[in-house]
Amino acid sequence: MSSQKATKYSHLPLSTTGPIDCAVIGTALLNTAYFNKGTAFPPDERRQFELTGLLPQSVHTLEQQVKRAWEQYSAMTDDLSRNTWMASMKEQNEVLYFKLLIDHLDELFSIVYTPTEGDAIQNYSRIFRRPEGCFLNIRDLDRVEHDLAQWGHPEDIDYILVTDAESILGIGDQGVGGILICVAKLVLTTVCAGIHPSRTLPVVLDCGTDNESHLRDDLYLGLRERRVRGPRYDEFVDTFVQAARRLYPRAYIHFEDFGVANARRILDRYRPDIPCFNDDVQGTGCAVLAAIKSGLHVSSQKLSDLRMVIFGAGSAGVGIADQVRAAIATERGIDKEEAAKQIFLIDKHGLLTSESEVSSSQKPFVKDAESWKGKDTSLLSVVQEVRPNVLVGTSTVPKAFTKEIVEAMASGVGRPIILPLSNPTRLHEAIPEDLLNWTKGKALVATGSPFPPVKGPWGKHGAQTEVKIAECNNSVVFPGIGLGSVLSRARLVTDKMLVAAIQGVAQMSPALEDETAPLLPGVDSVREVSVRVARRVIQAAMAEGLATEVDIPTADADLDEWIREQMWEPEYRPLRLVGAESASRAAKGELKIAGSMKR
Ligand SMILES: NC(=O)C1=CN([C@@H]2O[C@H](COP(=O)(O)OP(=O)(O)OC[C@H]3O[C@@H](n4cnc5c(N)ncnc54)[C@H](O)[C@@H]3O)[C@@H](O)[C@H]2O)C=CC1
Ligand SMILES: CC(=O)C(=O)O
Ligand SMILES: [Mg+2]
Q1: Closest C-alpha residue for ligand 1 atom 38
Q2: pLDDT of residue 515
Q3: What ipTM did this prediction achieve?
Q4: Whose CA is closest to atom 19 on ligand 1?
Q5: Is there a contact between 266 and 237 (Cβ–Cβ < 8 Å)?
Q6: 449 lines ligand 1 (CB under 6 A)
């Protein structure tokens, strides 16, 4: 794990071995989260960096700091306070923040990500203390390039995570608060895949908001006007993309939580030319297909046996449909049109048929209206008619998977695969406990946000069994896809790279070994999953001639070592004082960089 040890790949630019250059001293250093070590600054650095007198005398280890931080954290009494406490720790000391997070990931994952991050986003303008990330203004197109340029030199940024915040998780339009989904997902890229935290950039495209409560709130911090749509919106997105490409030509662009009318359109527009990825469309599709594959393995079925109903045909639902359709077509050796017959999309007005008003991405999945004429096309009726073995929820409609629907599904198949994915937790289409009780333990369940295990009399002769529930969230896959794309400096993110990522995750499913185990790997193996996904993505990029990084090893073991060496880890590295002249002027309070020298 330690990156201090030299390896054969220590020379690589992203290798995190050895000392780091630091041009700040004194209080400014203590206030720079990336360099700050707090009480762990060793005596020699305390002297060299003008810290004596600014810290208590005892020098503690990172492990001792984690212990203290965890004690403080444990005194918090509600999840939003826990989330706020974590955010403030991140502002103070990044190494300690990430170390704490990695050491207690099981407890903290749901605090820094869904569901609690959803509450933080909704309350952004109320709990705001200081900004993090880049805020771009649709009313100021001329400033976009300038505002983006503040974040570094061309080679400094590897990963840009951008939202327009119109469809945050399942909580809709959150305007400027959407910046926090970018911050949270970037935290996951570091925790799960070792993407360097200082080489990432969260961006919110502030286009206004149609959220009435934000519009009425005089403390709301974003543009307090209705969302701008149409050509001006497209121009804004394009201005951002072009500026990001010019300023940070090596950066991979991750789109998150755009509205349903824009998510796919924007992805399709930029995908042929730049390395970009939409997590809700592609990441969700990959995670769900991996979960389905492992569910089919447990139920001894194949993709060719699949009959899938997706409830909620928005960005995520159609993204899943696309990914599964492609996989069926490949497995059965048929065209995509034929494969789409196994997939049924239901939206607000029922099953999508040739008479429904549909978007171009939904169109390939519509069913012949004639054959459904006179029939009810609600979820229950479609389940009764189709007898699906897979049911997916991406509708944001809580409790939509009723007992009647689930029993109807279970009566037709041995092991129904049921994936209520709508986040945050309160929007899930069903909860695991109900699904298992209604199906007498037969359902294979994975959920969009984390759930505790469920116990019931489902073992042999009614023995109590504990079923662990996988979190089926794009977080299982997007960090590894990002890592693979960044390290290989892939020119594009292609379908083949995504298929490779799915294979990487599916191979690591605990359910392959034990059918009561979760369908997807859990937080305990996130970094290893990301190495595997990244390896597969890099190999696919190389096979397609899209990897621009030179000298990437080809053998699996070498490639894994090459990847691991470039994954950032939360460790205190020795600091090397650079710009001594600046530092000494800073010490005298002559430079702005020093910040306040007095408390
Ligand atoms: N677990 C995961 O990894 C992911 C989960 N999600 C969750 O999925 C949900 C949907 O997200 P997106 O697709 O991005 O949103 P979206 O807004 O693009 O899609 C939601 C769809 O559900 C439909 N819908 C609304 N009410 C309905 C009803 N009564 N019956 C049937 N359909 C209905 C909407 O018309 C829309 O097409 C959210 O809760 C989100 O958090 C999204 C991405 C990843
Ligand atoms: C997980 C995710 O991306 C979402 O719920 O939107
Ligand atoms: Mg999302």
Answers
A1: 170
A2: 82
A3: 0.99
A4: 314
A5: yes
A6: no
